[in-house]
Amino acid sequence: MHPARLFILCGLPGAGKTSRALELCERFGAIRMSADDWMERLGTDLWDEDARARIERIQRGLTADLLRVGTNVVVEWGAWARFERDDLLAIAGGAGALAHLEFLDAPVDVLWHRVVDRARQPRLGGRAITRADMEEWSTIIDRPTSEELDSYDPIPAVTAGDRPGSPAYPYGTWRPEGPT
Length: 180
Prior knowledge:
CATH architecture: 3-Layer(aba) Sandwich
CATH class: Alpha Beta
Order of helices and strands: EHEHHEHEHHH
Distance between the termini: 31 Å
Radius of gyration: 16 Å
Number of helices: 7
Number of domains: 1
CATH superfamily: P-loop containing nucleotide triphosphate hydrolases
């Protein structure tokens, strides 16, 4: 049996975390942890920081449980702060799981255009993300250093056997329900 894998996606809104999370879920048969999705489904304003913190705490515990029983997990909260990533790395280590960190980055102009273009913008809650938000966030995100990235396991290269439908692909074609 292979050890479970924890994939931590770090990046600002519009960086491609959800798209990458869905790819990883498909490839590795992983469960996706998205605070935004839970908040939307609960009808909670996405700007409610207390609710977000509670949901991430619940998802952190669920992630630990899933890893302990051998289930792969993708966390797509953004993990802007190093301490968040360190906590998730410790959870993976405690569960005997491999941990992968992927930093998704793009210039603010690109991030801003992606956020404006996507249909999620009206569903964000109390207000929409502004250009000023993006510019501020780009200065406060704690970008992973090469030293930090080196402390994680590399994500395996894609091979023909990793594709759904291949005899070597050990997972189904599970996809999460609801909007993505």
